[in-house]
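Appendix C: a fully annotated inverse folding record. The material below is reproduced so that readers can follow the format used throughout the book. The structure is listed first as tokens, followed by the designed sequence.
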């Protein structure tokens, strides 16, 4: 495993979530062009991340929304 592979493994979560600084994004993307193993890993991790985040996004119950709105109206 090359130092660039290790770099991708160390930073993949921030890369996937869009929290990686631009200089490091470039480094990850340049490495992915030449490393099919990291490209495959990052693709799978990205799919899993998308599914997980999708599970966490739920709408608040209407009663809670109304209660919060009522508090703002009183303020």
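Designed amino acids, in order:
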């Amino acid at each position: 495993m090359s130092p660039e592979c290790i770099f991708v493994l160390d930073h993949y979560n921030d890369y996937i979530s869009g929290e990686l600084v631009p200089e490091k994004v470039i480094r990850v993307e340049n490495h992915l062009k030449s490393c099919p193993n990291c490209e495959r890993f990052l693709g799978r991790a990205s799919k899993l991340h998308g599914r997980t985040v999708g599970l966490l996004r739920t709408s608040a119950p209407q009663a809670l929304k109304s209660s919060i709105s009522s508090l703002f109206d009183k303020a």
